[in-house]
Amino acid sequence: MKRPIVTLLSAATLLIFTAGCNSDDSVKQAQEANEMKADSTTANTDMGKVEEKGMDYDAEFLAKAASGGMLEVEMGKQVAARAVTPQAKEFAQKMIDDHTKGNAELMALATKKNITLPTTLGDDHAKVLKNVTEEKGIKMDQQYMKEMLEDHKEDVREYTEASIKAADPDVKAFAAKAVPMLKMHLDMVTKMKPTVDAAK
């Protein structure tokens, strides 16, 4: 009987939080929702505070990763449909395929851990999508590859860090599992980018 009551309380908390939140950034909203959950469930002890700090890191990592994963798929779809160069088209399709799977794993993990994820792109990722999709032709391909190079450098760094620093072993394992895929994407875009940059 306790479970439905907890679920109702969580839903009520989320509604109150959503109504009172001033930020439009979906990643920040998710992070604030997770902080409220942590505050309401963590015992006010030294050990509880240590655990809460670790879970805050995990929730923040997963929220950012969710927005990043959505960006890879959404931008990949738009670029795959409009790309001029075969390299940009191939890379975009790879992003759709790999990150669709990764996003599903991330959502399942967040559900299991009762972590709120953003349902739309965070502000930073929305800006990247706009920067790429507002371009046309070869310029779009070149901007896409530039953003993907920077994005995957950051992803490899952040996922590697999470594979070491995450408090929850499942979050740690999720991050560690993703690192080889992200490194492969980084290697792929690094090799393809000069060809796209040289195209006219």
UniProtKB/TrEMBL annotation:
Keyword Nucleotide-binding applies: no
Signal peptide: 1-23
The keyword tRNA processing is assigned to this record: no
Superkingdom, natural source: Bacteria
A Pfam family of this chain: DUF4142
Positions of the DUF4142 domain: 58-191
Record key words, sorted: Signal
Xref: Gene3D superfamilies: 1.20.1260.10
Protein known as: DUF4142 domain-containing protein
